[in-house]
Amino acid sequence: MSMNIRRDKIKDAVYERRYVYSTHYHLIWCTKYRNQIFKDQKLADEMKELLVQIAQDNDILIEKMEVMPEHIHLLISFKPYKAASSVIKALKGRSAFLFFQNHPEIKKSQMWGGHLWSSSYYFGTVGNMSKEVVEKYINDQIYNAQKEKKPYPSTH
Known about the structure:
Elements: E1 14-15, E2 20-21, E3 24-30, H1 41-57, E4 60-67, E5 71-78, H2 84-102, H3 104-109, E6 122-126, H4 131-147
Antiparallel strand pairs: 1-2, 3-5, 3-6, 4-5
């Protein structure tokens, strides 16, 4: 991708020294047994604060967050060199550890298996362009090169 960065700024992209990216992910996970741990506003606010701190410590940007009684919704972004599994592990694992450190009584009385979170989660990409828009953009590259009589090695 050759691009004159001064001229062709990509809207909402993050510009780093070696790469430009615009990645956003929707992450959802539930409490173990779907126990409604966060129906108390004080506990929900505490979990929000924990997640914000963990995100800052791990260079994760939380763009939007909601702590529901039995699940968490996050809209996050992180640098492309990070593995999604590491980001998820940091958020879920560290938040459970710190939350139980602050509330051993909840671990004992409501989470008899010793886990705050279910092992499963939903992780989806969120883009400012649909798959169809990207396909059209790529296809237009061929058309534009041919129209401008530039050499193009492929005509898929």
